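Posting for a labmate who doesn't have an account.
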Amino acid sequence: MPRLSDSMEEGTIIRWLVADGAQVKRGEEIVEIETDKASMTHEADAGGVLHMIAAEGDTLPVGAPIAQLLQEGEEPRGGASEQASAAVPPTPAADKLAVAEPESAAAPRLKASPLARRLASNQNVELGKIHGTGPGGRIVKADVERASASQPAPSPSPARAQAKGEAEVVEPTRIQSLIARRMAEAKATIPEFTLTREIDMEDAVRLRGELKEVAELKGGTLPSFNDMVVKACALALREFPRANGTYRDGRFELHPRINIGVAVAAQDALLVPTIHDADERSLWEIAAQARRLAASARDGTITPPQLAGGTFSVSNLGMFGIDSFTAVINPPQAAILAVGALAPRAIVRDGELTVRHTMTVTLSCDHRILYGADAAELLQRISARLERPVSLL
């Protein structure tokens, strides 16, 4: 199982793109894998005859064997099912299934992927009545789903119907499950604190109006206010290396490159594509790259390198009319900036009440590596850059 993202711990084989026993060339796409971030294809790192070890629907840890590439005359090393079983520890659901359906000493154990067994247990599908379509007749996820669809729907219990009605149970995708797990781990293991500040964006609004005229005359992608935030964060992080670092194993890891992740809602999941070396890119370059990355995230063509290497993140919900919110830190990063809506508001300036465009931002920090005073100075630097936006050009 290849590591297709920096946070990937395990992956699920969605489908094989070539047949078992087929001759493949180096660089040929052979399998589609669902990771903690997206579904991605993996290429053969050498040529040879493909001998599958893992079946479609199998979930395996990074580094576990999924296939062999055999040279002419070479025999497979062990059976496919034995290697797959050795690579994946039995799940609690699979154990329960084995207890509920004991096998006689003479009867061979049903060949089914761990995911298929787990799904069958959850949906009350009897594995013994399913015809497997995987390698060697192995039962895979798709077989269980077909069998489940053909079963009559169970009638809701009266108590359940009276209380809340009949609930629709929806299985989360692998990406949704991993997001849930990582966010729960972040909240449980990171001692975070938050700082909130209102930023006067009047000059930024004026500058963007001027940039719009330039974009219309000379072309190019018009920078958004979020692009300005990304650039301001990148420049400010130069002065605060710990905010661009990681707390790991009791030590501070300070990263030399400033790579800003930008949260994107895509296909019922949350992806964070990365703008690498954002401090060295122009505002126009950040704008163009941010658009490309967001489009790739939403249409499912995002690649592992585009999702990897983030050292700081920005999450913006201002376009939904949200004034302010607190974002969850994206491990193993030290901080994340939550950006609220930019709108004209009444404020006091120079002792007088006036209306100016303002925006509320909230910085969430890992207190193990970033302390209150440093975080406050970082947020002040970000604000200063945005309030004097000519510094972003």
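Reply:
Got it, the structure tokens are right above this. The longest strand covers residues 335-349.
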